[in-house]
Each structure stands twice: as C-alpha cells, then as structure tokens.
Batch of 2 targets.
Target 1
Amino acid sequence: EVQLLESGGGLVQPGGSLRLSCAASGFTFTSYAMSWVRQAPRKGLEWVSSITITGTYYADSVKGRFTISRDSSKNTLFLQMNSLRAEDTAVYYCAKGGSSDWDNHFDYWGQGTLVTVSS
Amino acid sequence: DIVMTQSPDSLAVSLGERATINCKSSQSVLYSSNYKNYLAWYQQKPGQPPKLLIYWASTRESGVPDRFSGSGSGTDFTLTISSLQVEDVAVYYCQQYYSTPLTFGGGTKVEIK
C-alpha cells in the first residue's frame, strides 16, 4: 500500500525558513517523480515543485526560494523553503507521480502539512 | 502557462441525477506523438487530500466507481457523474500535465439539491 506522510509544517515568521519532509513507502521510490502541491486556506490547488530522475522543476512563485530534493536511501522527499512570505501560507501536499517523469498525473497524495507564515 | 478554466464554479444536483463539470485549457493538451490528452480529474472532500479520479482525460483510476467518466480532447473536457450519490459531494479539479508549470482549474463544488 502506497503511503506518503508529510511533516515539518508549522508557524514561521516572514523571511524565515522551514524544511518539509515526506516519508514514502509501498512503492519503488526512485522510479517515480515526486511533487509538492499546496493549497492556501479556502483556495484551490497550486503546483509547487517536482523532482524526477533527470531534474527539478519549480513554479515561478517559489523559484529561487524553495529547493526540492530526495533521499533515496530513506525514501524521503524534502522541500526546503527559504525567504517565506505570507502568501506561502498553505497546506503542502506531497504527491506521487504516475511515472518517472513530470508529465504525468498524481496518483497518490499525502494528508498534508500546514505552513503558516505570520508575525 | 496553460490556464485551466472550470465551469460552473458550483452546482447542485438531485440525488441520482447527472452532474456535468467542464474544463477548458488555454491551449491544447493533446500530445500529437501519442494521441494522449494530458488531463486529469481529482475529487477533494472537506479536510481530505485530493483523490485521483480520471487520467489521460478518460481513463478511470482503479477503484473509482463507473458513474464517474471523463471525455473531451484538445482544449475542452468534461467530467460526468452519471448518478449523483451523497458521497460525491466534493470539490472537483481538472489538471493539465502537458507542460510546466503544471496547472489546475479553479475547482467546481458539487452539492446535493
């Protein structure tokens, strides 16, 4: 059974940093693209970043501030978030891709972790 | 960027009746080399993460009831719930994965009339 468990969310001041983690199990972690998708309070879904075998991809809104990475030895996906802004406040979901590349649907989602950026 | 526009924003349908949600992309998401439409549909219930319903525009995910179906090609797509059930109350999103940035529609809230 595929499981994705996010952690690391919390309250952070504007300009601060936070590192999200997503522990994956139930599939061959290195064979699939992994992504982060966020949802601001009472808003829709916004793709943040994806990581594949060949590279990393970012939304313009986070490029230069966020870094996606993965530790294959621990089956864990990360999102390092720096220079956080109020508009980054959202539930952050970890999502598994349907294939090894970014051009695929998200077939499994974690429960999400809430990031609140506020002074 | 490909803009995904869903309509309506919300709809109320009687139990057992048909619900139809539309999704329009600002450019085609049909990849000519494999004739696949890079379009997925998700269902999100309150307090839960999204759940994949349909991918490649019309392929139902394993375990999804057959009352859910997807259709369309190019820039115009439809998600149909043939006979609405209580458990189908949710917000539905379309998403294109033809190009980055990956983009979602604004969502359609489905309620019981």
Note: Chain A is about 0% helix and 50% strand.
Target 2
Amino acid sequence: DAGVTQSPTHLIKTRGQHVTLRCSPISGHKSVSWYQQVLGQGPQFIFQYYEKEERGRGNFPDRFSARQFPNYSSELNVNALLLGDSALYLCASSLGTSGGVPPDTQYFGPGTRLTVL
Amino acid sequence: ELKVEQNPLFLSMQEGKNYTIYCNYSTTSDRLYWYRQDPGKSLESLFVLLSNGAVKQEGRLMASLDTKARLSTLHITAAVHDLSATYFCAVGNYGGSQGNLIFGKGTKLSVKP
C-alpha cells in the first residue's frame, strides 16, 4: 500500500505570495494532521482534520488554513507568506478517532520543503 | 501547556558504545512516541509506548516509559554508524477532540568509527 504522499516536494515563493500544499493519506485513514518543522527544531502542530472537520488547531496565525476533502485528502493554505514560513511542512495520517481518546499512531509523509525569499 | 524536553540535544558516540537519550514531559499522557529522522527526510516511526512500564526493543534500540516520572528513555546498545540520525520523542496531546503530537527538539546522534 502507498504511504502518505505530499505535493509538491519543493516550492520557492516570495514574500506576500500564497501557497497551497497537498496531502493524500494512507488508504483507510480518515485523519490528517499538518505540522511545520523549522530547521533544527521538532515538528509543530498546525491543524488536525477528521472526517472533514477541523479537530484541532495549533498556535499559528489566521494566514494558515486547511481543509479535508470527501476522499480524506487535505490541503494546507498559507497566505501572505513571510520569510519565517520557510520550513518543511509535514502531513501525517492516522486511522482517526471520534474524540476524547489519545491520538493513534501518525504516519508522516515525505514533506514539502517551502522556501520563502 | 504540554511541554516535551529531550536531552542531550547533540550526541557524538563511538561505534560500539552505549548511551541513553532522555525525554521528559510536563503533564499526564499515556502515549509516547519515538521517531527517527534522517537529514532531509521525513519522520519514521520507531516505537509507540502505551502504558507505564512499557518497554519495546528493535535491534540496538530499546525504549521505555515511566508515566509516574513522566520520563521516557531511548537506549542505544553497541552503536553503529547507521544509527546516525535525529531522534524525536513526541507525546500525545490527550483530551478533548485533539489528536496531535507535541514533539521535543530532537537529539542529533552522530556515531563515529
């Protein structure tokens, strides 16, 4: 079975532009989470979606938004890019839960390397 | 706020030696993950520890969890060069409808001949 896939692999943008990153989860997984990993740091949680609904949001500005589609794939959108948005954006999929229980194992995709100039 | 601290952040080892990476977390959680990341690559799941006293081993790596002390350890036995990577621990953010992970800053391991 295919793992988590993400596109594009690399992306270069300039300040003020908009970017859309895409993620396809493992077949059968209903939950997708997005993380930002700045060089030299651990991944930071941005969003989690389960069954097309937002289930969690990290401490990121409103310039960051996401959605999940009926086929459980997901998009992460970032508006008005800043230099500080340069990072590896990781998508993780998991079977998902209906809430109130610890998260199950998340499987990470290869990531999208975003560079903002 | 749940915080996760790893130490050391950098570890240079000789092949054949043993060492331990420590992961402390600040609030109650009964699910602890260890991931490996090679340079420029994504995260590879190594271990999931689900209960107090859990111990898991794979090859030269062994992970344990003490939920009372809020501590997990990743022990490396007789290190080899192939183990060179960055190792992250992550704690499940338990409660409500959130299912995210809180990561430590990572331990960059370099194994030298």
Note: The CA atoms of residues 38 and 64 of chain B lie 22 Å apart.
